């Protein structure tokens, strides 16, 4: 059996080669498959927007969308008229062999996705592992994303959850643009904040709710 450190180094090296060879790690070619684990559906947006901003050399925030950047940043855009997907990836740690746990259960990002369908909106969230290709602060930043998970967190009336529990895999690439990233972040947050909170279904272990 390999020592965990040796195994981690080998895995990191292999994943780095994969990240650098994936077409999504080149400018303007992001590809993500959001695949339902139990409903036989796959959502594969054709991304045309990818912007990011770094906080430091370990932290980066990225927004990807199949909607044009002009649409996402315009004050005149009516969200209720849009059909598309906005993905938000927040990397909080750059993995390092020997220092960072590197396996299928490792996590160094949070991921959210807003699905828009002519006024019907669903907000998904989860986490996963991103192996970066490059470093935060460069003109382009991206990497390979393997088996991240998403579940529905919020939605408005009429939204049909066709994904259930989903996995996200693929490659991402975004241009460094702090100004645009900040505007898209505000748009993303305004969409999410307007959604009702999804209430957890009561289980048998929960205390009873007294009727009025």
Q: Class by helix and strand content?
A: alpha+beta
Number of strand elements: 9
How many alpha or pi helices? Answer: 3
From the spread of the alpha carbons, the general shape counts as globular
Topology:
Layout: H1 4-21, E1 31-36, E2 42-43, E3 49-54, E4 60-65, H2 69-73, E5 83-91, E6 109-117, E7 120-133, E8 140-155, E9 166-176, H3 178-193
Parallel strand pairs: 3-9
Antiparallel strand pairs: 1-2, 1-9, 3-4, 4-5, 5-6, 6-7, 7-8, 8-9
Task: Give a brief rundown of this model.
With 212 residues, this protein is of the alpha+beta class. The protein contains three helices and nine strands.
Written overview of the protein:
With 212 residues, this protein is α+β, with helices and mostly antiparallel strands. It contains 3 helices and 9 strands; from the N terminus they run αββββαβββββα. It has a 7-stranded mixed β-barrel. The radius of gyration is 18 Å and the shape is globular. Residues 1-28 and 200-212 have low confidence and may be disordered.
Defining traits:
about 210 residues, alpha+beta, seven-stranded mixed beta barrel, 3 helices, disordered N terminus
């Amino acid at each position: 059996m390999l020592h965990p450190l040796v195994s981690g180094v080998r895995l990191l090296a292999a994943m780095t080669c994969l990240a650098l060879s994936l077409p999504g790690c080149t400018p303007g070619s992001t590809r993500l498959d959001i695949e339902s684990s139990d409903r036989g559906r796959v959502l594969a947006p054709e991304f045309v927007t990818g912007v990011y901003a770094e906080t430091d050399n370990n932290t980066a925030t990225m927004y990807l969308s199949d909607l044009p950047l002009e649409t996402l940043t315009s004050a005149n855009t009516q969200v209720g008229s849009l059909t598309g997907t906005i993905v938000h990836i927040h990397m909080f740690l750059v993995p390092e062999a020997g220092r960072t746990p590197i396996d299928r259960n490792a996590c160094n990002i949070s991921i959210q996705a807003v699905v828009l369908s002519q006024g019907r909106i669903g907000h998904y969230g989860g986490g996963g592992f991103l192996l970066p290709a490059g470093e935060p602060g460069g003109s382009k930043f991206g990497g390979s994303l393997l088996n991240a998970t998403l579940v529905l967190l919020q939605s408005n009336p009429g939204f049909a959850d066709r994904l259930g529990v989903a996995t996200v895999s693929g490659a991402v690439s975004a241009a460094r643009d702090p100004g645009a990233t900040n505007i898209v972040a505000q748009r993303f947050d305004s969409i999410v904040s307007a959604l009702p909170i999804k209430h957890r279904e009561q289980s048998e272990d929960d205390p009873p709710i007294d009727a009025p």
